Structure formats: structure tokens, C-alpha cells
Amino acid sequence: MFSPDGQKALIALDDSTARTFEVESGLNEHIFRPQRGEASRRMHLTSVLPPSLSCAVFSPGDARWLLTTASGPSVQLLDAETGTCLRTFQNSGYAMNSAVFSPDGSRVVTTSWEGTVRIYYPATGVCERTFMLGCGRDQLVDIPRHAEFSADQARLLVLLDRSHVEILDAETGDFMVGLEDHGEFVVNCSFSSDGRKVLTSSLTTVRIYDAESGKCQWAHECEDLSTTVFSSSCFCHGVHSARDEDN
């Protein structure tokens, strides 16, 4: 993904490193490695990260923070210039699935295999809300694979393990609307920048939904789809998201 000013690019690689590049020159500016020990600087920066780094994203606006998600039960907030770990967001021991900044960068929403959606303040590390999700509102846990805020931060878009996509009240966690069935295994979903529409994608199909009614407005079939639009989220299932202005 690009930094908000477009001057830097950030990627997470299969070797479990996150790397930043200067877009103009192509220079590899920083490398963040999942290793233990003191951070060191040679031609690049090495920072302490948990093993099996899955993805990394810039914070909105000034891109001063990096949000990194790994295979363990924590998400780390790093200083984008020094690599220093500023905050660690942890759950009760289950692997994290995703971590996403709110549009203004004031909050972070995470999902994990414990079946929770959690909202944190990155400035303090405090967990503001915890929502436990259930299948059909019964006692069975449904695993959220991805969650993100609407532009006004009043709603949460949540992708569940059964490929159900729901919109929840961000203050209470109450169910607001469910999207009509995509028809295939959903690999990603995202709000439009105005929060009025939702995009979902499978490996072969993209669908656009009305966020108020949950009804599908149109669908388009593609081959080997690996990129979707509307969002720049840290999503651990291998789907990269580009911003809607890049459309």
C-alpha cells in the first residue's frame, strides 16, 4: 500500500518482513524483521516484530505509525521512522485475523479466532470495546475474519468465517443489517469512502451492495481476482486492498 502522501510504499513479504520504499527512487528505506533483540541500523532499519508477519499498513493522514499483524495473539503499533514498538494490542491468546485503522486513525479494530471484534485506542493501547460474535445470535462462536469502520465510525463492517457479511453498530455491537449472500466464498469486503456502499469479492466475483438495505446492486465476474477496492486494511488472508480513489 501507499502512504497517504503517496511518497512511500509499504509491503509485507512471505519472508515475514515489512518493507518501506521511496516511490520516487525505489530505494528500500526500512526493513522490519520478525526477530528478537535490539533494533539495529545499517543500510536499513531492523525492528523487533512477532514471527510470521502477515501484513502491515500505514496510519491515515501523516503515516507516522505502522500497524502489523502476525500469526500470534497480538497486533503491534510501530513508529514508522524508528521501528520502535509503541503499543501491543492483545486478546486472550487466539491468533489475530485482521487489524484496521479507523479513517481518522484514532482507533484500531481487530478480529481474531476467539470470535471477537475489539476496538482499541492506538494512542493509549486501551481496549474500548469487545464484541463476541455468535452464529445466528445463539451461543455458537462465529469467527470474524475482517472488520473495518465506516467513514463516520458509527458502523462496523464484519466478514464472518461462513462468508456472511454483516454491519454492526460500532458503539454497541448490535446487528444492523446483513448483506445478501455473495454466492461464493468471500475473501474480502470493504465500505466505500462515503459509507453508502459495500464491496465484497470472491476469487471470481465482485459485488456491490447498498449498505442500508444489504441488497446487491450489481455483480461482475472476473478471473483470478486478487485485488479489490474501497479500503486499505491489514487483512491476513492474502487479499490486498486498494483505495477507492485509485479506481
From TrEMBL:
UniProt-listed PANTHER family: POC1 CENTRIOLAR PROTEIN HOMOLOG (PTHR44019:SF8), WD REPEAT-CONTAINING PROTEIN 55 (PTHR44019)
Coiled-coil spans in chain: none
Q: Does the keyword Repressor apply?
A: no
| Superkingdom assignment | Eukaryota
Q: Which UniProt keywords apply?
A: Repeat, WD repeat
Q: What is this protein called?
A: Uncharacterized protein
